[in-house]
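Session log. Operator J.P. requested a structure for one protein chain; no other inputs attached. Running the standard single-chain path with token output.
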Amino acid sequence: MPLFRNAVFYRTIARLVDLPSDSLSEVAFAGRSNCGKSSAINALADHTRLAFVSKTPGRTQNLNYFRVAEGRYLVDLPGYGFAKAPAEIRAQWGRLLAPYLRERPALRGLVLIMDSRHPLTVLDRQLLDWFAPTGKPIHVLLSKADKLSHEQRLLTLRRVTSQLGEIGSQCSAQLFSSLRKSGLPEAENVLGDWLGLTGVAPDEGSSPVTPAESPEACRASPDGPSRRR
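Structure written below.
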């Protein structure tokens, strides 16, 4: 059974003062418009409508909390990179997101969703460079991997892993497809460990993720996370 199948919508947060006080651990999901963030959350939860898949980029402006266990949450962050968003909305995102990502004690790690066909955009790099100094782990899901050929998937994962290694050892990456449900066990292992749910992981045979350390230290697997030699 998927590790997050029991996830339920908990609350939409528009102000930091309203963040759950009972939270023990949280995993935040970030990504650009149309990167497949909501679809990835839905796939992990084995649910078609847990996270709303909007056709309007930037529509979600708040933090959406999904409870997966007592005191443990998945947090869907507002999308970023919306140049057409009104200035007051961009300012609201800054007031909410910046202190949340930098100062939230319960935040255990950041899942960054990138379209595998267009990874590491300028905005992706800006978020990585901004968040990395917190020292908290970053796991990249290269979404829509089913759109690439086998060779393209391998090349993309190698390139992304190499560049993440230059940012820091707390970064890791894997290929992911919500449509094909590929990469789910590997992602569950990472998130389950961050949330303290590792003991109930459904697939004991999945390979653990090892952080990228340098371009030379990593090798790529076609559907799972990158690992050191």
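Operator note: Strands lie at 8-13, 25-31, 63-69, 72-76, 107-115, 138-143, 171-175, 218-219, 227-228.
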